[in-house]
Specification:
With 293 residues, the chain is of the alpha/beta class. It contains ten helices and 16 strands. It has two domains: 173 residues, 3-Layer(aba) Sandwich (Rossmann fold), CATH 3.40.50; 106 residues, 2-Layer Sandwich (Hypothetical Protein, Haloacid Dehalogenase-like Hydrolase, Chain: A, domain 2), CATH 3.30.1240. The protein has a six-stranded mixed sheet, covered by helices on one side. Strands 4-3-14-15-16 form a five-stranded parallel sheet. Strands 5-6-7 form a three-stranded antiparallel sheet, with helices on both faces. It is globular, with a radius of gyration of 19 Å.
């Protein structure tokens, strides 16, 4: 079996990887397999299909809603369950069976809402609650419209979320055009909540996300690999581009960060691929899967 030495300028020293052992490839969507066009480019599709033809199973792990992620799952020909909402929701599209759902309590969700409204006005933050794979908002802002168009979903307007919240949210999202506002929000929320109480992350610079404390892509990939497929971390390759991908990049035997990822994500990766607009996923698959004998 061939070994490749992967050099990542953000980390040291070099590591040796037995790439022939890779049996599971896990891919993020936004910023990883889908760039500005919100579509998967042909070189990336071809590389994914080539990996599958060699017996490597391919899965999607995303912060997106299940219904929003389905078309990407289908487009890459995945036959595995779909990991959504940062790992809080895992469902098999073939059987429609939901294998995992970790939700926030109404009390916690409303505490978050109180804090958002206490510190930031609605003109700054757009608040999204995700319940039963539907999006609920107290106001349809310009940011909500852009988000809904890219996600391919229709938001449901509920003026008074405190009074009329229809269930326990899978995820709470705050959008803001000013990343510095979310930097401050994340810092203050991490002082209020321990990791055992709430999982807090940023999936893009303008998104602040909160989910159940046991929900992360790393834990979702571990569940898929070890409990469903009987694999070990060394047999897993994961590719992502942002802070919500850090846990799965760390878990995988081969963890790849995209060239467009923040430095804080790259530093924990084994290898840094080219930018999403330069088909970085195709380059990573060629390096670690197709280049292996």
């Amino acid at each position: 079996m061939q070994k490749i030495i992967a050099s990542n300028p953000a980390t040291a020293p070099d590591r040796a990887f037995n790439t022939a052992e890779i049996k599971l490839l896990v891919l993020d969507i936004d910023g990883t397999i889908a760039g500005l066009s919100n579509e998967i480019r042909e070189p990336v599709k071809r590389a994914i299909l080539a990996a599958e033809s060699r017996g490597v199973k391919v899965a999607v792990a995303t912060g997106r809603m299940y219904q929003s992620a389905l078309r990407f799952h289908s487009e890459i020909g995945s036959t595995l369950p779909l990991i959504c909402y940062q790992g809080a929701w895992i469902q098999d599209p073939a059987t429609q069976k939901r294998l995992r759902h970790l939700s926030l309590s109404k009390q916690t969700a409303l505490q978050l809402l109180d804090y958002f409204e206490e510190v930031h006005s609605q003109s700054i933050l757009s608040i999204h609650f995700y319940i039963d794979d539907k999006l609920y908002v107290p106001e349809i802002t310009a940011a909500t419209r852009v988000y809904a168009q890219r996600s391919g979903i229709e938001p449901n307007l509920i003026k008074d979320l405190r009074r009329d919240i229809p269930g326990e949210p899978t995820k709470v999202l705050a959008l803001c055009e000013n990343p510095e506002v979310l930097d401050g929000l994340l810092s203050s929320m991490r002082q209020r909540y321990r990791p055992a109480e709430l999982y807090l992350t940023r999936s893009v610079a303008t998104f602040f996300e909160a989910t159940h404390p046991l929900a992360s892509k790393g834990d979702g990939v571990k569940y898929l690999a070890e409990e469903l497929l009987g694999l070990q971390p060394a047999q897993v390759m994961a590719i992502g581009d942002n802070f919500n991908d850090v846990e799965m990049i760390s878990y995988a035997g081969v963890g790849v960060a995209m060239g467009n990822a923040p430095d804080g994500v790259k530093i924990g990766a084994d290898w840094v691929a080219p930018d999403v607009e330069e088909d970085g996923v195709a380059a990573a698959i060629e390096q670690f899967v197709l280049g292996a004998s």
